[in-house]
Specification:
The chain has about 90 residues and is α+β, with helices and mostly antiparallel strands. The protein is about 40% helix and about 20% strand. A hairpin with a 2-residue loop joins strand 1 and strand 2.
Length: about 90
């Protein structure tokens, strides 16, 4: 699960708030992903790159590495949905 809020300046992201759920005991904000998205136009490619930034420092345990991919996909979909591009 991921939540994304975007403040747009025309077609570019002026500011973003990206928070992942179910990856820690509390909601987990991703300032790395927010910085990666700032100033960019939202597209499938930028959403993919931003999602990769969101999980770049993830340290999965021995039996839950698949959750990194789940988080990456959740962030990408949330970005596209927030921008009006659908999931």
């Amino acid at each position: 699960m991921a939540a994304v809020g975007l403040k747009m300046d025309g077609s570019r992201v002026q500011a973003a708030r990206i928070v992942m759920g179910h990856v820690a005991p509390t909601p987990w904000p991703s300032p790395e992903a927010e910085a990666a998205l700032k100033g960019q136009s939202v597209s499938a490619e930028t959403a993919q790159k931003t999602a990769a930034a969101a999980v770049a420092n993830a340290k999965p345990l021995s039996h839950n590495a698949y959750k990194v991919q789940l988080a990456r996909v959740a962030v990408k979909r949330a970005i596209l949905k927030a921008a009006g591009g659908g999931a």
